[in-house]
Amino acid sequence: MTPKLPSRHLPPRRLLAVAAALALFGGPVEAQSTSSQADPTPPPSNMPPPAVSNCPLGAFRCARRPVSYAMCRPNAMLSFYDPTLSKDSSVRDTSNTYVTAQRVDSSNQSIYHLEGDVKLERADQRLQADVTDYNNDTTDYDARGNVRYQEVGQLVSADHMRGNQDASTATADNVAYQMLTNRGNGVATQGQLLDDQRSRYLGATYSTCDVGNHVWEIRAKDIRMDKETGEGVAHNATMYLYNVPFFWLPTFTFPINDERKTGFLTPSLGNSSRGGFMLSAPYYLNLAPNYDATLDPRIYTERGVMLAGEFRYLIPGTLGQINFEYLPHDRGDSAPDSVANTKDTDRWLLKYNDYSHIYGPWSFYTSINRASDRNYLRDFGNDLYTSATGTLASSTYVNGSGKWGAAFWNAQFGADYYQNLDPSLPDTVLQYKRWPRAAFNVDWPINRWLEFGASTEAVAFRKEDVVEGNRLDLYPYLAADFRGASWYVKPKLAYRYTTYDLTGQYNMYGYTPGILSPGVATPFTSRTPSRSLPVVSLDSGLVFDRYTSLFGTSYTQTLEPRLYYLYVPYRNQDNIPLFDTNLMSFDSWQLFTPNMYSGADRQMNANNLSAALTTRLLDDNGVERLSASFGQIRYFTQQRVQLPNGVNTVTPATNWSGSDYAVDFTTQLNDDWKVMSQYQWNPNTSLTDLGAITFQKRIKTDGIVNFSYRYRRQPGTNAPLLEQYDASVVYPVSDRWRLIGHWTYSVLDKKTVEALAGVEYDTCCVALRLVGRHYVNTYDYTTQIGSAYNSVMLEIQFKGMGGFTGQSENALRNGILGYQ
Predict the structure, then answer these.
(1) In 368, 397, 458, 640, which residue has its Cα 20 to 30 A from 434's Cα atom?
(2) Residue 552, φ and ψ in degrees, nearest 5
């Protein structure tokens, strides 16, 4: 027979009778015969997390590794944890109380005296002790001797515990506790359960380290835990590292689960050539479920005190983020190549991004990026990619897309603005402001094999002291798609019309076509030049496949020949200025495109035939394990449309019979290594125009090694434009240690462009990262000399108290392919 004891009314005589009867058989009063005997196992939050899926080889940026407690020992207090106990605290008031004891004395009609392995259980609560007095009328209890208490959020052990079951309140002496929502644990002279969500500990400690081995801990006069908000608050708190105090605050907040919490994030300590020693102590503010902020005060010994911050918000239909940095009265000297004096000036950086849904298919997007001066990112950028940024772009657009009958459309209207951040270049190198710009694209399927479409764009280009103007580009087309199981033929007929309205003293600017040395620029002769021409293409291909075997593994091999014919008649475009058009770098993708120029200011002439052959190896799951392609463009007429070469001339027309041979090769026969390569050979000069190879190998479970070589020749010369070696590694020495390195070397300059070396140390509750860097972040195009800076960054993470703030992580994730 299993007795059930209501939480408000306990029949005394029935309990006594059952206890006496079961005592005759030598067994205790058991409420649950199965769960009470279950082997205690650690709760999910205290088990090592599942293995993190490795970042795919070849990915540019990888996700961060989550905080891992895999090196922690099972906590001693978990020996009495029962994972089968209910996790729902909301049903306490309507749940019965179950009692187990070896002996029961109910001589007092209201108070039960329980002895010998006493266990009281209700919903998610379980109290165990050697001796317990329970008042059935008031639900007060008094437990003594080897007291152990479990509820949905924590475990508690104590010498003595008394409280009220209905109110979920209790007071315990000489307490040790373990949070079940994370690894937080500690001891206290007294613990108090204030209700089913809140608890308080006096004279307490807190840490996420192993019980009995606190590498770090908080010692406070008063620590309060709130499971509902997921936050702990310590008053008069001192943080200790190896029993040495190093941080004190009158009030200190910290997270007790994985939800966002207000509190300090991991501080950072660094040193750089431009800023001196830097100390950062970011503070996170969990203001509301849908918006938060981070304040990041920083001290630069060479420059002063900076306040950085971030604000994020999410409201119905709107998502946005604001980042700012502000340093008043910069004490540091200006950069040697600076065009302006930044000393004693206010330095700042603003980034604002917002996406808002307006109505129906329409949305609004804005991205504002502004800096106080050209040297800001050089002086305060924390990675090579940021500090090497030469232009900050800002844009604002209204976007729309949808379906109109059978047609699919998208449209946008807005503006783009650019700020020059390269101290060695004048503002004339900036792109034109597109102020404003509108675009509309439509794709209308007429039937299953024929479609009509159009791409249109209208832009007003603005820039001081040069020719300005407005441009309208119309690009309608009619395309067909005939295909079968192993073939396709896709003809396309398009017509491109581009017209201009030039302003801004257009007759003062221009260039002379042909090869002139030296010469005088001929001004643009028309205020309203235009260009119209047809664009005709025919794309066709075959796909063959067969089963094959390689190294004992079965694959499906494909053979894919492809032909692409393009015809575009020549139009003289020398009287059209260049607003946003450049010659794109040649690669295998350009074998099958109708224009080798970006932007609408130039449309190449063509009478070309592109041919390519591709083969692939697909495994049984359809994953591409090898891909190789080889192709070339054959020119039947010379390429006459060219870009200006300098101010007064244009490059000569090309009379090559064929383009570079383009070769691409990628292989990943297993999940541990990958090779990617590109090669371009010019048959007209018998020279290599481009060569690149990247090798990537995974080391153990969380290591990676990369090696790459890049070469590009300057067009029209025998001299190389770029030749670099790049190597990087993340080497796991053990479960605790990882070595990090990155090296980029320029053969042309005979110097190191960037070198990085560091170490990561990971334990149960502390992680450390130390990174030193040497990098070139400015380049003088006149003297062809770059300025090299040095920096050192140290970050320490106390697990459970906040994550790495990313001061060094940006450099690692951008510089090391596959870093996690």
Answers:
(1) 640
(2) 80, 5
pLDDT per position as a tens digit, 325-384: 999 999 887 766 566 678 889 999 999 999 999 999 999 999 999 999 888 887 886 554
Domain residue spans of the chain: 1-38+82-167, 171-259
Please check whether residue 413 is in contact with residue 452, taking contact to mean a CB–CB distance below 8 angstroms: no
Distance between CA atoms of residues 359 and 467, nearest Å: 38
Q: Does the structure show a pLDDT above 90 at 725?
A: yes
Amino acid of residue 223: I
Check if the beta carbon of residue 531 is closer than 8 Å to that of residue 545: no
Q: What are phi and psi of 93, to 5 degrees?
A: -65, -25
Q: How many helices (H) and strands (E) does the chain have?
A: 4, 46
CA distance 165 to 155: 16
The model's pLDDT over 71-106, given as tens digits with 9 standing for 90+, comes to: 888 888 888 888 888 888 888 888 888 888 898 888
Burial of 440 (0-12, 13-18, 19+ CB in 10 A): middle
* Cβ neighbours of residue 381 closer than 8 Å, sequence gap 6 or more: 387, 388, 389, 777
Nearest 5°: the CA angle 388, 394, 395 is 145
Tokens of 71: 């090196």
What residues have CB less than 8 Å from 134, skipping those under 6 apart? 10, 99, 111, 112, 114, 120, 140, 141
**390-440 tens-digit pLDDT:** 789 999 999 999 998 889 999 999 999 999 887 777 777 889 999 999 999
In three-state secondary structure terms, 94 is: coil
> Which residue, 640, 529, 515, is CA-closest to 575?
529
Phi/psi at 67 (nearest 5 deg)? -60, 130
Q: Cα 442 to the chain's mean position, in Å?
A: 33
The pair phi, psi for residue 813, each rounded to 5°, is -70, -30
Nearest Cα to Cα of residue 266 among 800, 815, 759: 800
Residue 346 half-sphere exposure toward CB, CA atoms < 13 A? 6
For the segment 624-644, what is each residue's pLDDT rounded down to a tens digit? Answer: 999 999 999 999 998 888 887
Residue 746 contacts by C-beta under 8 Å, 6 or more apart in sequence?
723, 724, 752, 753
Residues 264 and 518: their CA atoms lie apart, in Å, by 64
Residue with tokens 């001796």: 131
CATH of domain 1-38+82-167: 2.60.450
How far apart CA 687 and CA 706 sit, in angstroms, is 27
3-state secondary structure of 812: helix
Q: Are 260 and 283 spatial neighbours (Cβ–Cβ below 8 Å)? A: no
Those residues whose C-beta lies under 8 Å from the C-beta of residue 717, and which sit 6 or more positions away, are none
Instruction: Bin 805: left if φ > 0, else alpha if -120 < ψ < 50, else beta.
Output: alpha
In whole numbers, what is the pLDDT of the chain averaged over residues? 83
Give the residues across from 228 on adjacent strands. Answer: none
In this structure, are strands 263-264 and 268-272 parallel, antiparallel, or unpaired?
unpaired
Which DSSP symbol is given to 514? Answer: S
Q: Give CA–CA dist 45/34, Å, rounded.
A: 24
As a residue count, the chain comes to: 820
List of residues 6+ apart from 94 with CB closer than 8 A = none
Q: How many angstroms separate the CA atoms of 128 and 77, rounded?
A: 13
Q: What is the Cα–Cα distance from 330 to 430, expressed in whole angstroms?
A: 27
> Could you tell me which residues are beta bridge partners of residue 255?
231
| Tokens at 351, concatenated | 């980034």
Nearest to 530 by CA among 578, 475, 472, 599: 472
Are the beta carbons of 589 and 574 closer than 8 angstroms?
no
For tokens 């700012």, the residue is 324
